[in-house]
Amino acid sequence: MGPGSRPSRALVSTPDPRVDGRVGVVGAGAVGASLVAMMLDAGLPVSVIAEGARALRLRDAGLAVNGTTYHPPVDEQPEKGSYSLIVVVTKSTQLDDALPLIVRAAGRQGLVMSLLNGISSEAIIRDALRMDGAPPDSVARRVVPAMILGIDATRMDEGVTYLNRGTVYFGSDPITAPVPAESLDSVERVFAAAAIPTKRSRDIMRTLWWKFMINVGINQASAILRAPYGLFQRSAAAQDLMVCAMEEVLALSEREGVGLTRSDIDEWIATLAGLNPEAKTSMVQDVEAGRPTEVDLFAGTVLELAQRHGVQTPVNRVFYQMLSAMEE
Fold this sequence. Notes:
- The chain has helices at 30-41, 52-61, 95-106, 121-131, 136-142, 181-193, 204-225, 229-234, 236-255, 262-272, 282-289, 296-309, 314-327, and strands at residues 8-9, 23-26, 46-49, 63-65, 68-70, 74-75, 85-88, 111-114, 143-151, 154-156, 159-161, 165-170, 198-200.
- The chain has 328 residues and is of the alpha/beta class.
- It folds into 2 domains: 8-202, NAD(P)-binding Rossmann-like Domain (Rossmann fold, 3-Layer(aba) Sandwich); 206-327, N-(1-d-carboxylethyl)-l-norvaline Dehydrogenase, domain 2, CATH 1.10.1040.10.
- A hairpin with a 2-residue loop joins strand 10 (154-156) and strand 11 (159-161).
- Helix 12 packs antiparallel against helix 13 (314-327).
- The relative contact order is 0.11.
- Mean pLDDT is 92; it is low at 1-5 and 10-18.
């Protein structure tokens, strides 16, 4: 092994008896690459679904995660319905481009789980599946509401690193996503086989709002300050800035009938304390790389809801102006 080279792990193609069919991951950024690496380490039948330049790059360079280079199968033209579970981990700004791949890979039976930030990706995916001709009642039962919290994956020049695997929260909603218990069981088996912690939420829509509130605070405050988690662990001023933005989401959640409380903020602060202090949010990584941020998804959504409900959200208005100016 030459100087500066890393261990390499070849693809895994042997079906795992603990998993019901093939698993596809759409999006190989910091979080997506980390999840793929965990699944490959566990011997799961996982492929990265990508096309064009992304597919070529993955085939050529693989995924460098925690010092190991992985070469997962890359499926550029998935057969219709060839995956039993598709995990979507793109950026929200990339979701529209990925929809044709997701729809084709899922077909009429595959489950789709979105781990995207925000509170709208599930509805977007459901609409895309319906436009492909899938029955509406079937679609509602196949798009699993979910989010991941506590993973501190960061993309560096030498690849992706993470210390904490995070926890995948998922569940069903009787109105918008009545996912059957047996489907939730199959999802849980996939993540359990890869030793990825999960928690089945009794109120998944409230859980998604909780993650949204967290993103509105930590992602935007860290992007403006260009700071890793460590600053928010040790600086009262930085943490207060984050909390002020989150409190505006609390007020909106009451108007939306979700009812987040101060204890939800406290729970996030406890989680924050255990993250790698050197790791950075995805929004910091986007700002540093000159990529578009998810400011429209975070502050933009807050401002839209605030206008609807007649609520003042001055912190998020300033965040929106600052981050938009930084992008320009």
